[in-house]
Every structure is written in C-alpha cells, then in structure tokens.
Specification:
Order of helices and strands: EEEHEHEHHHHHHHEEHHH
Number of strands: 7
Largest sheet: 5 strands, mixed
Oligomer: single chain
Strand content: 5-15%
Radius of gyration: 23 Å
Number of helices: 12
Amino acid sequence: MHPFHLGIDVAKAKLDCALRLTNGKFRHKVVENTPAGFRALDSWLAKEGAQAVHVCMEATGLYWEGIAEHLAGQSTLTVSVVNPLQIKAFGESQLIRTKTDKVDAKLIAQFCAERAPDAWQAPSPAEQALRALVRRLEALQTMHTQESNRLELARHTVAEGIAKHLQWLDEEITRLKKAIRDHMDNDPTLREKYRLLESVPGLGERTAATLLAFLAEPARFDNARQAVAFAGLDPRQHESGSSVRGKPRLSKIGHTLLRKALYMPAMVTLYRTEWGKRFQERLTASGKPPKLIIGAMMRKLIHVAFGVLKSGIPFQPALHGA
C-alpha cells in the first residue's frame, strides 16, 4: 500500500499536481512539463515528506510520456497511466460538476487512492526510439496525403510549392523507412521479435514495426485479450432488457494508430492468405457480415502477434486451419 497518492493532470506546457496526504487532505503544485519541471516536482515531493507514492496520470497524447518515464525510474514511486475515459467515468460517479486542471488533478489522485490501478512499465530505450520513428512516419504519410489532395485543386501560384513539399516528403518518408529497418536490425531483441512477426502471413514490414513499437513486450499484458483491448479492438455489446439488442461494435477505446495499422493487413490476410481465407469462410458460414469479419481479423492478428512474441515460436499454419 502507498501512503501517498499523486494525481497529475498533463498538458503540453505544464503539469498540475495534486498530492493526497495520509490524512486525506491535498497539496497542490504546478510545474512545467520539462526536465526542469520534473526536478522541481521531485524537490516538492521530498519537501512534503512523500516517500512511497503511487502516481497516476491520463494517457493524453504524447505529453505524459516524459514525466512518466522520469518518475518510473525512481524506486520509491509506482506510476500508473490510465485511459482518460476511466477518469471521466470516475468523476461522473463522484458527481463532479467543475472541470479545471486543479480539480482534474485532485480527481486523478482520488481515483488512484480508491482504485489502485496497475503499474505502468516504461518501454526500453530501443522501443521508445522505434515509437518515435513510427509516429513520425505516420505523421509524414498523413501530411503527404493531405498535400496530394491539395495539389489536385491548387492554383498555379501555390502548386509549385506544394510539389516541392511533396518531393521533400517522399525523400523523408524513404529515409524514415530505412531508419526503422536499420533500428530493428541493429537491436538484437527487436530483430528477433521482428523475425517472429514476419512469419505471420499478412503482416508486412510497416505493420510489424508498429506492433513492435507498442506491443514488443507481451509481459505487460496478462493475456491476449488485454492486448486487444489496448488497441481498442474488443467488441462492445449494447443490450438491455428484452427490447434493446444493439449490434456488437468495436469499442475503439484504445490505441488509434494500432487499429489504423491493422486494417489493410486484415484485408490482405482475409483475401490473399490460406489461413485468412479459412477464417473468412468459417465466419461467413456462420452468417457474419463482411465488415464484422474484417474487425474480427484485426483482432485475430493481435492474438496471433501476441502469441508468437510471447512463445518465441514462429507462426504455425496448422494451428490456424491452413
């Protein structure tokens, strides 16, 4: 048990911190979301006499990663990173009507004290670097699509500039793809795990890199279902009484980039691989619509990726009806 609980409301420029004391009262502190601000937070916790502290924050964009990695490296602290929807639901259960950064930080600290969320494990430096490369590649490819769409309708006064930008994007995307390959090749652990994912028919280089960036260490999850939920691919039921029978849908309460990365591989697997075709035939025979089958294959790919990474055994076609 932790005698102190620290809730941090994360923003781009600052961290609103609420420290729940042993007597249930709170102390508040605002620091910058920078290394200097992290050190200031350390000093404040020491001044307050907070030794064994359970820290909790929301997974808001990328802004939480720096402070989470900084605090997770301290032996007296336990860090939890939770889905923002958990905090929102907890606030509604407490009938909280005011929303400010200070109130949110206090709410997160209270959630931490009452719910004791699981500890967050910081990714290895190699995983952190791979995540940065994968995210940057995704951002540039999105930008490339946007600029290509603009060029189709652009007036001649700006078309040349857009064309030059597209050329730069092409060169940078090519460079980033090579950097991702080199990074995985140069790290023995990532290289072996990439080899395992590469054995799964339907998973290409980019998808394997994305999976490694966020699911490289299966020990962070108790089972494959948790990994599926992390990606937001778990089915959501909506039923009540005898009259409400909503269609099951993907929860989408999870990592958007993982879902996006798995859509096209799911299509390729279903239509161009033997095990995917068998999977599709089985679900079609059960009366499942095409859209549901695609979502089911995205979920299946997470299960398979989790399995090969955890077992260290390449994909076995015979286990999947191929």
